[in-house]
Design brief:
- This protein is 0% helix and 47% strand.
- The protein contains no helices and 24 strands.
- Strand 21 and strand 22 form a beta hairpin.
- 40% of the residues are buried.
Length: 294
């Protein structure tokens, strides 16, 4: 059963590390599987018809090292490398693929709770000179919730990686389409996007907002939305039919913003760059605000 943080406005369902999702991509600490605002659902799933639900992303899952996992290059075939927040993964070939389901040696997790707060820590083993302690706090407020992160380098080598929340979002179960608008606090630069996948031309890129002329049936994807420029880490999604908005704000700037989605989900992604020397730690946070649109 999920752990539930709840007040008069918000309800957050959090799966424990050993519950449900058991694949090797997404962080097992604080798996936020569902968020409701005044009983309206705000989250969706990676696939609207998954063959195996517990191998799929959902809700507000996050990931460390999407492009390359910690210590992958130093590991030999058949050896182990870190996936932060999950444990050790067994290397099977020369290139890391985040969507591949690797064999897992889980990390050690410790959970505690306070009033309106879920606290979890993840302690890794030491492999190839790398080890860490990850701590996450999910804090519920009146109309918002905040995820506070702390990552300490307990190994002998620098930790160089990144982290983002995939944000599998859908408001009131209404399919993505004309009633949605996604806003950013910076200018969108299509000519500098690294990748553009918009096969049906149903996604419209404006100066600082993304709209839809119809509901897309095929997957869309845009990377590098700010053109690699450092910008405030923020997005805001509004459903003009339900008159509900949700926003994410990081306490950092980012030079990598991606957008992925389809008919059943939209996922804006704000990446946080991580560089930690041995014995040092870093902290960051993400705040989600939910509100009625007047």
């Amino acid at each position: 059963m999920p752990y539930i943080l709840k007040n008069k406005n918000l309800e957050i369902h959090i799966d424990l590390p050993s519950e449900n999702y058991n694949a090797s991509r997404f962080d097992w600490t604080g798996k936020i599987v569902n968020v409701k605002f005044q009983n309206v659902q705000l989250s969706s799933m990676e696939s609207h018809n998954p063959q195996n639900e517990h191998q799929q992303g959902k809700g507000f899952y996050n990931e460390f090292g999407m492009d390359t996992a910690l210590g992958f290059d130093e590991s030999v075939i058949g050896g182990w490398f870190h996936k932060i927040g999950v444990g050790l993964l067994k290397k099977t070939d020369s290139k890391y693929h985040c969507g591949k389901n690797y064999e897992i040696d889980p990390a050690k997790f410790k959970i505690s709770t306070e009033s309106d707060t879920f606290i979890i820590s993840c302690h890794s083993k030491t492999i190839n000179g790398y080890s860490y302690v990850l701590k996450k706090e999910i804090v519920l407020q009146e109309n918002n919730f905040t995820i506070n992160y702390s990552l300490k380098n307990t190994g002998e080598k620098d930790i160089i990686t990144d982290e983002y929340v995939h944000n599998f979002t859908l408001i009131n179960k209404e399919l993505i389409g004309c009633n949605y608008v996604l806003k950013f606090p910076f200018q969108l630069k299509p000519l500098r996007f690294i990748e553009t996948v918009n096969p049906e031309k149903k996604v419209e890129i404006g100066q600082n907002a993304i709209k839809f002329n119809q509901s897309p049936k095929e997957t869309f994807f845009f990377s590098n939305l700010s053109g690699s420029k450092n910008v405030d880490a923020q997005w805001e999604l509004i459903n003009r039919k339900s008159n509900i908005g949700i926003s994410e704000t990081g306490n950092f700037q980012t030079n990598k913003v991606n957008l992925w989605g389809g008919q059943h989900v939209i996922s804006p992604e704000l990446f946080f760059n991580i560089a930690i020397q041995p014995g040092q730690s870093t902290q960051w946070s993400r705040s989600y605000n939910v509100y009625k649109v007047i």
